[in-house]
Amino acid sequence: MSETNSSTPDTTARPPMDNSGGGQPSVPLLALRGISKNFGPVQALQRVDLDIPAGQVTALVGDNGAGKSTLIKAIAGIYAPSSGTMMWNGQEVHPHTPRDAAALGIATVYQDLALCDNIDIVGNMFLGFEDTSAGALDEISMELKTVQTLKDLQVSTVKSVRQLVGSLSGGQRQAIAVARAVMRDARLVIMDEPTAALGVTQTANVLNLIKTLSSRGISVLVISHNLNDVFAVADRIAVMYLGNLVSNGPISKYDPSSTVELITTGASERVEPHPLHSFA
Amino acid sequence: MSSSEDLSASPPNLVTPVTEVPRWRALLTNQLTVLVFILIALMLFLGNHNSRFFTSSEMSFLLADFSGLVLVAVAETFVIISGGIDLSVGSVMAVAGVLAARAMQPLINSHTNEAVVLLLGTGVALLVGMVAGAINATLIVGFNVVPFVATLAMWYGGQGLALVWTGGQPYGLNPGAQTWSAATIPGLPFLSWLSLIVIGITVVLGLVLRKARYGRYTFAIGSNNFAARAAGIGVKKYVGSFYVLSGALAGLTGMFFDIRLGSGAPTTGQTTTLIAIAAVVIGGTSLFGGSGTFLGTVLGAAILIVVQDGAIFVNVSANWVPVVVASVVAVASIIQSGRLRLRRRS
């Protein structure tokens, strides 16, 4: 049952980065170089370099005001960076609107904001991209695709896809928002605090969903304050401190206490500053 | 291998009710059932009280009054579901009716071809309505004026213009209008051509709200404006279009009254705005936007018209009719809110 979904034709193929056997680092899905952003005199981001490899979960951590949200907004096309370049699969890109970013395959999932409570799951999954036949909404086609996508992502807590989204729990809403992104062929899903305000079971469901995404070759960039969650799902950690990206690398180089040190002081004796391009 | 078979077999099972609700409560909490029940009860009561109620002349009268309300009520449904409100429809009806009559009057007096006269009148009424709607839309979308205020201004200004452009005197359109409004469908003496056209437009609008992208986006915008924008829906364009649609249908209703009354009068539609909103609310549409039904509005309009016209059959004097209608609005609203409470509890 577990791998039957890989027969679907769309996004399941692993990107080429994994077959670089010779230790030569392959092109990351997203590479940020020297990204800075200032709001007037305030430097929110200072020359951030970050690689997001395909199919991995990168946790972006940092204290309040460290620049995490500014960074994801720059990636998602909400803020234009003041300077720096953004490479997508090795190509320089400049997403100026969320729609540009979505066209590239970058989807941002907002926990509460981006779904319509009074519309059912199917309607929300397809909002703005409805299937139609002869001018009428093709509900059957949309329902089939919704059911299949939720099945692929192993979202099993939803009783009916005709439920209004307003009746869903926070974790379920999150799952629907993610499923919507996956159905739009997202290659990178950005999640801002996906488990904030969720109960234990729902948190576990969302973390499972994140793992499922990465197992399907979709990259996830997740902001979280909860280090338990970070160490449960992340393949890599990127730590921000006062607008600087002070450390990033595979999760094996970190433990909760060194991460806390990095978050609070910007440095840790136990984690050497990590050079770029050194994927595990 | 088996996954593709699973896929084709599974979907119907997923479309099941979320929670099992007792049947009586499901029936009671279904707003349409309640409205149909109220409508039937009212009509049976009136028919029982006065045998003249179910005659075809009375039915055609009811249908005509219904036709004069239902288009603006349905337009208002779109606007309210999208999270706005249009208070101007009554005045737009008057202005459009007056200008259409002003265009038609000389042609009727010179015995021009009837089709030409009707086409011209309809065109003028539609155009005037759409212009008024476009002004509302510009204020609301372009200048961020709250819909309540923008359309209130249009309502008041429209009343003034209707008086200015008539000098207070209606433009008479007879004998032409009389024959047009009296024409009925062969074999169905209670159904005039005029009502049939209105019902046809209404059905199309109902399908659009329920089955088309346009309707889906109406709900999306009223439900979560941010989500609609994030999904790439041109929210401003759509919001503007709701007011233009509302204006257009108010214009057509103005033309309808020209024909029905045989004149373009500045006083047309004075109470229509609020009756239309009452029909929408009775129909279960939320004034907060995001939810509502087309059939609810149609039934709401039907109930209001039956009460208003039926009051005469139970010897309510004309002056008391508004009070009776008001009571029905109040009672229906109480039933609606009780229904919502029941549903929430289940």
Give the gist of this structure.
With 280 residues, chain A is α/β, with parallel strands linked by helices. In chain A, 29% of the residues lie in helices and 24% in strands. The longest helix of chain A has 16 residues, at 200-215.
General description of the model:
- The complex is a heterodimer of chains A (280) and B (346).
- Chain A folds into two domains: 29-105 and 187-280, P-loop containing nucleotide triphosphate hydrolases (Rossmann fold, 3-Layer(aba) Sandwich); 117-184, no CATH class.
- Helix content of chain A is 29%, strand content 24%.
- Chain A is built from eight helices and twelve strands.
- Chain A has helices at 68-75, 98-104, 121-125, 139-152, 170-183, 200-215, 227-233, 256-265; strands at residues 30-39, 42-52, 57-62, 83-88, 91-92, 106-109, 132-133, 136-137, 188-192, 219-223, 236-241, 244-250.
- In chain A, strands 6-9-10-3-11-12 form a six-stranded mixed β-sheet, sandwiched between helices. A four-stranded antiparallel β-sheet of chain A has the order 2-1-4-5, covered by helices on one side. Chain A has a two-stranded antiparallel ribbon with strand order 7-8.
- In chain A, strand 4 (83-88) and strand 5 (91-92) form a beta hairpin.
- The radius of gyration of chain A is 19 Å and the shape is globular.
- Chain B has a single domain (31-46, 55-340), classed as ABC transporter involved in vitamin B12 uptake, BtuC (Orthogonal Bundle), CATH 1.10.3470.
- In chain B, 74% of the residues lie in helices and 3% in strands.
- Chain B has helices at 2-9, 11-14, 23-29, 31-49, 56-81, 89-109, 114-142, 147-164, 176-182, 193-211, 213-223, 225-230, 235-261, 272-282, 294-310, 321-345, and strands spanning 171-172, 184-185, 188-192, 263-264.
- Chain B has a two-stranded antiparallel ribbon. A two-stranded antiparallel ribbon of chain B has the order 2-3.
- In chain B, helix 9 crosses helix 13 (235-261).
- The model of chain B is unreliable at 1-19 (pLDDT under 50).
- Classes of the chains: A alpha/beta (280), B mainly alpha (346).
- The A-B interface holds A 4-5, 7, 98-99, 102, 110, 113-119, 123-124, 127-130, 132, 135-137, 140, 143-144, 147-148, 151, 159-163, 167 and B 1-4, 7, 10-11, 14-18, 207, 211-213, 216, 219-220, 222-224, 226-228, 230-233, 290-291.
